[in-house]
Each structure stands twice: as C-alpha cells, then as structure tokens.
Amino acid sequence: MEKLYNKMTSVGISSLVMGIITIVAGIGIGVVMIVNGGRLLSGKKDITF
User: Fold this and answer.
1) pTM over 0.90
2) What angle do CA 45, 38, 31 make, to 5 degrees?
3) Which of 17, 31, 33, 39 is paired with 3 by a 20 to 30 Å CA distance?
4) How far is CA 46 from the centre of its chain?
C-alpha cells in the first residue's frame, strides 16, 4: 500500500510540473507570435509593388 501511495505522489507532482511548464511555454510562444505579427503589420506600409 505504501508503494502505491509513493507512486501516486510522484505522478501527481510530475503532472503539476508538466502543467506549469506547458502554461509557461504557451504564454511565451503566444507573446512571440503577437510581437512578430505586429512587426509584420507595421512593415506592410514599406512594401511597394
């Protein structure tokens, strides 16, 4: 029974850590995409055909 308790604890902790990492990575990627989109839109006026 104690072995199962320890395994559940380690799985729970690893799930929390992976969730936090996923949230941080998602926010970081979102910010980069917004910045790059803004740069593309602001540079649109410099294009001549």
Assistant:
1) no
2) 170
3) 17
4) 32
Q: Is the dihedral of CA 12, 13, 14, 18 positive or negative?
A: positive
Q: Which two tokens stand for residue 13?
A: 């902790």
Here the tokens at position 31 are 């910010």
Which element (helix H / strand E) includes 29? helix 2-42
How does 2-24 read in b/e, with b if 16+ C-beta sit within 10 Å?
A: eeeeeeeeeeeeeeeeeeeeeee
- For the stretch 16-23, contacts whose Cβ atoms lie closer than 8 Å and that sit 24 or more positions apart, written own/partner, are none
Tell me the residue type at 13: I
